Amino acid sequence: KAGVTQTPRYLIKTRGQQVTLSCSPISGHRSVSWYQQTPGQGLQFLFEYFSETQRNKGNFPGRFSGRQFSNSRSEMNVSTLELGDSALYLCASSLVWGAGYTEAFFGQGTRLTVV
Amino acid sequence: QQQVKQSPQSLIVQKGGISIINCAYENTAFDYFPWYQQFPGKGPALLIAIRPDVSEKKEGRFTISFNKSAKQFSLHIMDSQPGDSATYFCAASNANTGNQFYFGTGTSLTVIP
Description:
The complex is a heterodimer. By secondary structure, chain A is an all-beta fold. Chain A has no helices and 11 strands. In chain A, strands 2, 4, 5, 6, 9, 10 and 11 form a 7-stranded mixed beta sheet that branches. In chain A, strands 1-3-8-7 form a 4-stranded antiparallel beta sheet, with no helix packed on it. The termini of chain A are far apart. Chain B is mainly beta. Chain B is built from no helices and 11 strands. In chain B, the strands form 2 sheets. In chain B, strands 2, 4, 5, 9, 10 and 11 form a 6-stranded mixed beta sheet that branches. In chain B, a hairpin with a 4-residue loop joins strand 7 and strand 8 (72-77). At the A-B interface, strand 4, strand 5, strand 9 and strand 10 of A face strand 5 and strand 10 of B.
């Protein structure tokens, strides 16, 4: 069974540009969450999608957005990139939403560097 | 405000020893407490998880102890091995907010041969 696949693995972007990251969840999983990991702030929740709907959102500016497709694949977009957006962006896949005690499985992440 | 506080920040243990990592939380609505292990260049991997109606859960060399009244939980790694050297994160979530996890700040574990 394939795990969570995130593409690309590495990205270098210039300040002011925008970027789109992709996540394919485990087959059969319908919930996708996104996290930002930095040395200073640790792992922080961005948002979660289930059945193509955003279910909850973390405390990030509107420059961070996402969507989910009917096949459960998800993309996140960051517009007007800032140097502080440099981070490892992680996608987590879960079977359902809101059922409690649901295991979340992470991908290897996309390392974004903003220069 | 850090919803889940984790300590220590780093830990060095001899091979064969016991590694203990502690976490504390304030939100009594949390109802699921997983631990993740992360190696450099990799995403976090689910190690073991516990629910608040259980005081202890053991899987192989890994044990979670949970103290609901103290709002604390800990990870014990028995017979620590060099291959256990990684960063460990505790986390907490509430079913009402889906799979939104609040993570601790991480513990860098080094097991010396």
